[in-house]
Amino acid sequence: MKIAILGTGNLGYSIAIGILTQDNFKFKNLYLTKRNIESLDSWNKLPNVKISTDNKKAVRFSDVVIIAVQPKQLQEVLEEIKDVVNPKRHTVISVVTGRKIQDIEGVLGTDISIIRGMPNTAISVGQSMTCLSSNQKGKLHVESAKTIFNSVGKTMCIEEKLMQSATVICASGIAFWMRLIRATTQGAVQLGFDAEEAQELAVQTCLGAASLLVKSGNHPEQEIDKVTTPSGCTIEGLNEMEHQGLSSSLIKGLVTSFEKINQI
Ligand SMILES: NC(=O)C1=CN([C@@H]2O[C@H](COP(=O)(O)OP(=O)(O)OC[C@H]3O[C@@H](n4cnc5c(N)ncnc54)[C@H](OP(=O)(O)O)[C@@H]3O)[C@@H](O)[C@H]2O)C=CC1
Ligand SMILES: O=C(O)[C@@H]1CCC=N1
């Protein structure tokens, strides 16, 4: 598979790192573009990676085109590549927030295979949660997209109308979970650990909690019940967090984030 990433910024770069470092996915060439390519200079040393400012050239050399520019930059990139996108050859995967498949079809045409993807930056370490939807033609190529994104995490095919929600939960979600981990770390420092130890304790406990749910398939409350000794310290702390609005503030944050996407 020959892959191009148009827009190698925070997310595009993370996707590239993920693709390059996962052993279970073999690609032939990876073409990375951005307008200012100095930051990608070191990538030129890799034999099967090409760096360029030329989006058209990248498309011509690829089968799968991942577009990872900011929403306000998308139209220009689509206009630039529309003449070189070939319905018989290319699958276009847009990871651009808030831009519908219909918007992309409006420039590239309905005969192009278009997939809308929403990965997150954990793709760089092979742990992305990536949601996918496609246009009619793209349905034939969803398996190729799944092959790519399954090699760097998990995928879920969803209806496009849920893509904004998926963006908040999974993509913005990385930032939300980071803040929760940081808060735990701050608490651990207050309770006597130095900063480095505090972060290790917070991160491993977070990983343990997630792994318990992944392995058991249990509801979080079943695992909470196993931890909360009657009249113990856990339920005391948990109830205080809820009195202070833990669940409520998380949900309100997710909904506020969702409302913002609809204005992007
Ligand atoms: N960051 C994240 O965690 C996530 C982001 N997204 C979405 O992914 C997209 C990218 O986000 P993010 O990586 O954070 O943004 P960045 O601004 O970091 O990346 C965008 C990149 O596109 C490049 N670019 C801009 N215009 C062009 C052009 N005409 N041709 C080629 N490259 C171009 C920019 O580099 P230069 O200026 O050098 O051209 C930049 O590196 C957004 O739509 C965002 O909403 C989705 C999920 C998660
Ligand atoms: O903050 C943003 O708008 C983008 C979408 C999800 C992650 N970053």
Automatic annotation (TrEMBL):
Keywords: Amino-acid biosynthesis, Cytoplasm, NADP, Oxidoreductase, Proline biosynthesis. This is Pyrroline-5-carboxylate reductase. One of its GO terms (cellular component) is cytoplasm. It comes from Lutibacter oceani. NADPH binds at N55. NADP(+) binds at L6, G7, T8, G9, N10, L11, A68, V69, Q70, P71. HAMAP family: P5C_reductase (MF_01925). The lineage of its organism: Bacteria, Pseudomonadati, Bacteroidota, Flavobacteriia, Flavobacteriales. GO terms for molecular function: pyrroline-5-carboxylate reductase activity. Catalyzes the reduction of 1-pyrroline-5-carboxylate (PCA) to L-proline.
